[in-house]
Amino acid sequence: MFRNAELELVEERARASMGTWERRSLGVVRAEDAAEFARAAGESTPRLVDPGHADFAVHPMYVVSLLRGAPGADASEFRPDGMYRDEVPGTDGLGVRLMAGGQAVRWIAAARAGDRIELRRALTGVERKGSGEGFVLLTVEKVYGSVRGTLVEVTERFIVR
Q: Taking the model in full, what pTM does it have?
C-alpha cells in the first residue's frame, strides 16, 4: 500500500507541473570533453575523437548526454540510485524505482565546440498504467539549443514504480 501512495503522490506532483518549461544552462561544449565522450562510446574516427583534427566534429549524442553544466555536484543532488534528484519530475524525495521508458531524438543542427548549451524541458504527459499498484509513465520534452538555435529535440519517457 505504501508504494501505491507514493505513486499517487508522483502522479499528483507531475500533473501539477505539466507544461511548465524549465531552463538550465549546461555550459560550453569543450572539444576535449566531446572527444572523450566519443571514445567512451566506442568511436575511433579521428574527426570525432581528436580535437586537433582539421574536421573535428562533436558526436551527435554528446549534447543529449549532458545533464548538468560544470562538474562538481555534491552528494545532496543525487538520488540513492545515482540519478539527479530533479531529473524525473515528481519523484524527488520518494522511494520509487525509476526506469528509462524510451527516447526519441530529433537532430536539428550539429553542436560545435564552443557552443553554450541551454536546455529547456517540460513534463508533457502523465499516465497511470496497469491495474492495482501499476506504474506511472511520464513523458518529458527536452530542447537543447545554443545562440544558433535549436540543436536537438528529445522526447523521453520514464517508468515510475
A: 0.87
